[in-house]
Structures are given as C-alpha cells and as structure tokens.
Write a structure and sequence with these properties.
CATH topology of the largest domain: Rossmann fold
Radius of gyration: 23 Å
Number of domains: 3
Strand order of the largest sheet: 10-9-8-11-13-12
Strand content: 15-25%
Distance between the termini: 33 Å
Number of strands: 13
CATH architecture of the largest domain: 3-Layer(aba) Sandwich
Length: about 350
Amino acid sequence: MELTPEHGARLAAIGWRSDITLPADAPDQAIPARVIVQHRNGYVVHDGEKEFTAQPAPRFLKRNLDPTERPAVGDFVLLKPGKPPQIETILPRHALLSRAAAGERYQRQPIATNVDTVLVLMGLDGDFNPRRLERYLALIQASGAHCVVVLTKADRHDDLDALLVDVGDVLPPDTIVHAVNAKDAASIAVLHPYLGPGLTAVLVGSSGVGKSTLTNTLLGVERQATREVREHDSRGRHTTTFRALIALPQGGCLIDTPGMRELKLTGEENLEAGQFADIEALATQCRFGDCAHMSEPGCAVRAALEQGDLDSDRWHSYQKLRDEIQAQASNLEAQLKRKGEARILGKALGQRLKEKYGHR
C-alpha cells in the first residue's frame, strides 16, 4: 500500500511524518488515520479530512492484553472500512509516554503516543514542586520524547529570575524552561517552535495548572472548559476528562490530558541518563562497588552530602525514585514472565485439543 501525494498532504494536518512506513501487505482499501480521542466504548479517529468513530479489532479487546498494546491517543492506525470502521493495525510508534496505573496490580498506562515534545506545566501560584518535576522527568526520559518545562501564571510571580535559578538546580543542563502567561498569546509564542507542521506535543500537569487555558489561547477560541483553582492550595478540579488530540493553527498537533494526581513510574526509567546523572556518577567514586551510602568508609556520596556539594533533598528524592524503579522493574519482569508462561500453556493446550479432537 502506498499513499498518494494528495493523501499524504491531507494526513500532514494531523501530524503524519515522512518517515512513517506502511506495511507492504496492507490492503489497498485500508484507511490511514490517527487516534484523536479514546473513550471506554470506542475511539474517535481523523483521516486528515474529517473525524469519525471507530471500533478496535477484537484482538485489542482481550482482557489480559497490556494496555500499551492497544490503540492510544496519538497512534497512527490502519482502518478496515465498515460501519463503523475497525482499527486493524497500529503503525510503529516513535515515542510512548506512559505511567504505571494506580492500584496494587502492576499495569502500564499509555498517556500519549508519537509525541515529539512533552510540555510539563507547573503553575507559579503554589503548584510548583521540584520533587514532582523530577518524577515527570524520569517518565519522559524513558518515553522517546524530549521535555520542555512550562511555568504558567508567570504574571503572578514577583521574582522570576530567582525562581528559574531554583528550577535549574533540579533539571538536567539541557532542559528548556519557559515562564509564560497562558492567557496571553504573545507570551506563549515561545512554544510555537514545538508546535509546527509535522510536530506533536502533549500537555501534562496537575489540575488547574492551565493546560486548557493554554490550549484555548493557542487555538484562538474557547474550546476547552476552564475553572478557577482553589485559593488555599492552588489546585483545580478536572475540566479535561479525557485525552484529546487537537490540530493547531501553528500547523502541529497538541494532546491535552486530564490532570494527574499520581505519577507512578513504570520500571523502565533510567536515572543515570536523566536528571540524576551526577549522583550516579558520584556513586562510582565510592571505595566499595556495593556501597550502600550509609556508613561505609570512603563513600563519595556521604562526603558530598557532608560538604554541602550534594543537596540532601535531591539525594532523598533520588533514593525514593531509585527504589521505586527497582520495585516496578521487578513487577514488570514478573508480568512478562507470567505472560510467557501463559502463552506456552495456551499453545500446549491447543495442541492437546487438536490431537484429541482433530483440526476444528
């Protein structure tokens, strides 16, 4: 299957990229589209000209299927024509932002796929939290997208320069930070480079931080509902209740998401490649390779803490995230092992039924 130049131009409006390849064996009648909304009872997709509902193929509805293997907002898919059309194939993703779902049972939950930039919004009215920002950064580092921190409600802060210094102490050196007023089109113009043709960005942050306000300002119309935040804790109620991909006048696409109260790591994060690379490097200087950084002699980490070269809050945050990643990695490994065993048992059962009853 090959796209005509006209079809490719239409799909470009919903973020289609020139490096997306279609399966060679895809039927000619298959319809390329992008998932723009996910509901419990189905999906809304866009084919570059119009949006319409679609249902997933039966295999995507299997109870024990990993949620990351189902269609998600941002996915490019192939549809089988019908009433309604059916999502048959998920095209390869170049990025997947996910978190571990809430609850005791381990499960990865997609937030958005095929995004180039994750815009992490934090409000300067009391919402800013360095520890939560570190958690966002860990999730994004594992996604394949790059991170841009957007500090909203900049008009409510008296000393932005000092705050930006504090933020810089939390972030890796190459992380970009913008302080904006989400209600001011001129102020948010600094975000346009991440929202140009062929680019997709996703907004993440707490309820009330200004995601819907920013979306409305980028669109130039009041499309997303907004509400005032509570004065005593700067938190808002959910106005966005589901993830939605929106085409922007700037030429790119934006995925708005509900506010996230819980950010559980998946176990696939790598702190050594993220904002804690300095601590990971420092630990290699300890006298003993298995140093627990408690009371061992020659511990470079303890020395840095005592000399004030390593902030104790960052160290405790690193320890918490490291332990959570290790625990979640064990949960992920156990889940994959169970799936492998179930697959083997299923094949063995199928073979026994075939031998007993013949091919059916």
